[in-house]
Amino acid sequence: MANSGPSANDTELISGGHLVAKALRAEGIDTIFTLCGGHIIDIYDGCVDEGISVIDVRHEQVAAHAADGYARVTGRPGCAVVTAGPGTTDAVTGVANAFRAESPLLLIGGQGALSQHKMGSLQDLPHVDMMSPITKFAATVPHTERVADLVSMAFRECHHGAPGPSFLEIPRDVLDAKVPVDRARVPASYRASTRSAGDPEAIERLADLLVHAEKPCILLGNQVWTCRATDSAVELVRTLDVPAFMNGAGRGTLAPQDPLHFQLARRHAFANADLIVIVGTPFDFRMGYGRRLSPQATVVQIDLDYRTVGRNRDVDLGIVGDADAVLRATAQAASGRLENGSTARKEWLRELREVEQAAYDQRLPRQLSDASPIDPYRLVHEINEFLTEDSIYIGDGGDVVTFSGQVVQPKAPGHWMDPGPLGTLGVGVPFAMAAKHARPDQEVVCLFGDGAFSLTGWDFETMVRFDLPFVGIVGNNSSMNQIRYGQAQKYGADRDRVGNTLGDVPYSEFARMLGGHGEEVRDPAEIGPALLRARESGKPSLINVWIDPDVYAPGTMNQTMYK
Fold it and tell me: Do the Cβ atoms of 295 and 165 come closer than 8 Å?
């Protein structure tokens, strides 16, 4: 009798969870951040087979924030896996933060079985409807054969235009079912290049504007790091002697000692420049919706997303493209000029340096203050002095982190992390978790406000459990001080303590209870030594520094919502 081929019983089968893991591995994902649930455990089984690390946390918000942080550090998309219902809703804040910060991640959420659709199954919610406004892509996997295909589709959308998060829900019976391997497509090579260099005519015009500007300046924002455009940005500003300011993840593009690195003269530059180039930064509240730029200046905006260019403020030239490709092409277009204008800008650079130095000199006495309670400027000064060339700095808080934005200067690109424009508190521990896991040989330093740490601080135990040492500092004023200031301004000093006052919590004891290193600091002279002991401990650490509750950062006092 002739052999009619293998029977159905001989066909290799694969489950939906294992298809997820194969698709993640094909995308270069080596870690998922998760909190367990019955809907998603087959993904864990697949991750074990594919060699993907599973970091299990204590709250789904932490999982989403960690995936966001992982993407920022590595340049590859992060991945969080959470269960249905409250597991997915707990992760909403982390996804929303990544959406506003243009950070690529995939959140995979569980869902009740398709066979129980609309029957009221355990933890059933309309996840896709909830996630659609805060993601670039949100969908349900309808069949096991489509699992890997839809995972790849979700990742593809993460990188369309400005990056961002995607969401995929997988019903329990779809995830647990098995299908023949040959019927399930696992995409392995499909990603198109999205690194557009912009309109060549616009590049030539920008080069011409830069060459002929007498008082140019450039703001290097988040997308300079997202696009890994550091070298191109440095080449451009050095070729043309353009003073550079940096914000968000763009901090560290130029080292603090670089003669073209400026930080404190930004207001003066924006008010007096004749050409302002904005790279990868929207005209949102952080930029006064564009109103902080001189109306007489020629304004150029470069962004990955065409919807961002010219929003809230007119621009003279808008270029949609990858910051690395655009800046490199502009530098090449300008460098061939016999006279690129750099000589004429020496006086402009001297003017800005004088403004920068005057602002630094005015603030320096407070950075060196021996006052008790400790002046927050002294705390952030000590942190800045403590950072090394390899230190990744994370800010998680309101008022105290606003102080650090004026003083702390990362020594290299990619070494500054903050939540971004959503202003989310609670990113510190998950960002530290992701950064230390992704870059185990680098030091991670995180400044928390006491209110911010309280939101996700229990995952300090996760840092201990996975042996992820970092130096944590809590600037403790027993208050949500940024809000307290606003209340005092709007309603009077007799009502400044309504709903914003916290207990005097010794967070060092919390750290020690969970197996980490902890110290209390009340004397400013002890901040530096305590930081060194935390570094040498080799453990997750919290240095609880008691700071003056009646001192506010200039950024807090200048917020328009309080005026």
Answer: no
Residue 29 has pLDDT above 60, yes or no: yes
Taking the CA atoms of residue 129, residue 24, residue 53 and residue 454 in that order, the dihedral angle to the nearest 10 degrees is: -30
pLDDT tens sequence across 79-99:
999 999 999 999 999 999 999
Pair 283, 276: CB distance under 8 Å: no
Nearest to 101 by CA among 231, 255, 234, 286: 286
Average confidence score pLDDT of the chain:
92
Full DSSP string of 87-130: HHHHTHHHHHHHHHHT--EEEEEEE--GGGTTS--TT---HHHH
> How far is residue 2 CA from its own chain's centroid?
63
Mean pLDDT for the stretch of residues 20-29: 95
Does the CA dihedral 117-123-129-135 come out positive or negative?
negative
> Above 90 in pLDDT, residue 349?
yes
Instruction: Give, for 208, the enclosing helix (H) or strand (E).
Output: helix 200-212
State the Cα–Cα distance between residues 210 and 529, nearest whole angstrom.
Answer: 47
Mean pLDDT, to the nearest integer, of 15-26? Answer: 96
Say what the alpha-carbon torsion angle 48, 51, 55, 61 is, to the nearest 10 degrees.
Answer: -90
What is the average pLDDT across 489-515?
93
pTM, entire model: 0.94
Handedness of CA 267, 268, 271, 276 (dihedral sign): negative
- Cβ atoms of 404 and 447 within 8 Å: the answer is yes
Residue the block writes with tokens 């300090």: 460
- Using an 8 Å Cβ cutoff, are 367 and 382 in contact? no
Q: What is the 3-state secondary structure (H, E, C) of 368-437?
A: CCCCCCECHHHHHHHHHHHCCCCCEEEEECCHHHHHHHHHCCCCCCCCEECCCCCCCCCCHHHHHHHHHH
Contact in structure between 387 and 445 (CB atoms under 8 Å): yes
pLDDT at 256: 93
Query: What's the confidence (pLDDT) of residue 521?
Result: 98
pLDDT value at position 216? 97
Entry field: residues in the chain: 563
pLDDT tens readout for residues 418-463:
999 999 999 999 999 999 999 999 999 999 999 999 999 999 999 9
- CA 337/CA 330 separation, integer angstroms: 12
Quick one: which of 115, 114, 174 has its CA closest to 148?
Answer: 174
The Cα 66–Cα 95 span in angstroms is 10
Q: What is the dihedral of CA 290, 293, 297, 301, to 10 degrees?
A: -40
Would you say 25 and 46 are in contact if contact means Cβ atoms under 8 Å apart? no
What's the distance, Cα to Cα, between the start and end of the chain in Å?
90
Q: What is the DSSP letter of 53?
A: E
Q: Which two tokens stand for residue 413?
A: 């690109």
Q: How deeply is 528 buried, as exposed, middle or buried, from its count of CB atoms within 10 A (0-12, 13-18, 19+)?
A: middle
